[in-house]
Amino acid sequence: MTELTLAKSLPQGADTIVVGLVEDNGRGTLVGWPADRSKAYAKRHGQSLLAAAELIGATPEANRVCLLPDGDTRIAVVGLGETPTTPEAARQATGFAVRAAAGSKTRPVHHVAVSLGPTTPDDVKAIAEGALLAAYHPTPVSSRPQPDEIARVTVVADSGPAIQRAAALARATATAVNRARDLVNRPANLLPPAELAATAQHLAADAHVAVEVLDETALAAGGFGGLLAVGSGSARPPRLVKLTWTPRGAHTHVALVGKGITFDSGGLDLKPATSMATMGSDMAGAACCLAATLAAADLGLKVKVTTWLALAENLPSGSAYRAGDVLTIRGGVTVENYNTDAEGRLVLADALARAAEDKPDLLVDVATLTGAKTVALGKWTNAVMASDDTVADELLTAAEAAGEAFWHLPLTPEAEDGLKSTVADLKSGGPREAAPLVAAAFLRHFTADLPWAHLDIAGSELNTGEAQGIRPVGATGAGVRTLVALLANLGS
């Protein structure tokens, strides 16, 4: 794991230095490049760093990176856009610079120092996160030795209690994101429900978070008909994991619910083969909630967090559930299942119903729930739907601070029309029109009218293209930064 340190000036031992280039009155101006280093560089090379960088194409264009050698050190000059620079611009630029330096084949990168000029606590948090998230790379299941990770990131900033707190929040946030990435990247054959539950137990024990696992026998006794139905086609039975962080002095109770489908074949309504290969990532919501809970404990946040991970594997077999089956969800509500590939809302219904029994002050679920979300908002913008605008604004404020893109979608009366059933209390869905809204409307029935938000992160949980900045190939850790920011706001 990459170490994060702070320093008042550029450290001598760094093999890579990141400085910024901004547009100021129509000119490119370096920021974070101290006068003593500037004089020494010009003496060695016969020109300034700015002149040398501009010769190879450096501009203030956001996230544009140019690498220059300076003896045993590599200097990354990254565009920050127009001045003043926002924390989000600093986060992204740092990520692009660190990734470019780490991707260079000329020399290994072990210690990166980032110096982007005067820094506020928000800037420090963003810069540190950008570097730590870009330093991550997936660990393959391989017999071959893997390259060393970046061992240390140093952020140049004045010290002080506020800066130290910002760095601690950045460290915990990045650790949580990368922890979620590791879980989502793990192949589905190595992470069935029971193994994911055991992993949660292990991580929770290290963080002094209480944990309870309900197996298939306990699920049957507790009336969790959604989880049992979805997992009925697999030889690897479902699990429901409860994690509890209960600090002294907490005045707010937040319940998190994560969809944890460890592999989604679609069940008897089988997915096309081309859509199935990445379906081990359908537990990204559970990974997000688990990681955020552990971050709350790492930070000692004064907010009670109860987290429910609804884990199942959705496979076809002679024992699999069917479209048209009537299921009884925790609490007694009966549901006519309209499609076995709409399994996420069934496991979430069970977990939401159980979470609501504890009457938390806020209930939040996270799920890779609907492919239609990507049709509505694209791959990288996530959806938030909520019980009211006040709750939605609370989530959107956290997302903006965290640098994640979320958009508020409405819960319309028309969305309820797709849930009408003649054979049960509810139908789990219907026509594809407004599918994200219909799915959220279904979930709302199990929230006991508590303050509630639903985060649909479908698409953004996995990057199947090239790595860019803080976004690696594979799992992205979508939603984790927003949840950590939310919990920090409530428990600081």
Explain this structure.
The protein is of the alpha/beta class and 492 residues long. The protein has 2 domains: 3-159, Leucine Aminopeptidase, subunit E, domain 1 (3-Layer(aba) Sandwich), CATH 3.40.220.10; 179-491, Zn peptidases (Aminopeptidase), CATH 3.40.630. The chain has helices spanning 35-45, 49-55, 87-103, 121-135, 161-185, 193-206, 216-222, 225-230, 273-276, 284-299, 344-356, 372-377, 389-402, 413-417, 435-444, 480-491; strands spanning 3-7, 16-24, 27-31, 65-70, 73-82, 111-115, 152-156, 210-214, 239-245, 253-264, 304-314, 326-328, 334-336, 362-367, 382-386, 406-408, 426-427, 452-456, 462-463, 474-475. It has an 8-stranded mixed beta sheet, with helices on both faces. Strands 1, 2, 3, 4, 5, 6 and 7 form a 7-stranded mixed beta sheet that branches. It is elongated, with a radius of gyration of 24 Å. The two termini are 26 Å apart.
Topology:
Elements: E1 3-7, E2 16-24, E3 27-31, H1 35-45, H2 49-55, E4 65-70, E5 73-82, H3 87-103, E6 111-115, H4 121-135, E7 152-156, H5 161-185, H6 193-206, E8 210-214, H7 216-222, H8 225-230, E9 239-245, E10 253-264, H9 273-276, H10 284-299, E11 304-314, E12 326-328, E13 334-336, H11 344-356, E14 362-367, H12 372-377, E15 382-386, H13 389-402, E16 406-408, H14 413-417, E17 426-427, H15 435-444, E18 452-456, E19 462-463, E20 474-475, H16 480-491
Parallel strand pairs: 1-7, 2-5, 2-6, 6-7, 10-11, 10-14, 13-17, 14-18, 15-16
Antiparallel strand pairs: 2-3, 4-5, 8-9, 9-11, 12-13, 15-18, 19-20
Helix pairs in contact: 3-4, 4-5, 5-10, 5-16, 10-16, 11-15, 13-16
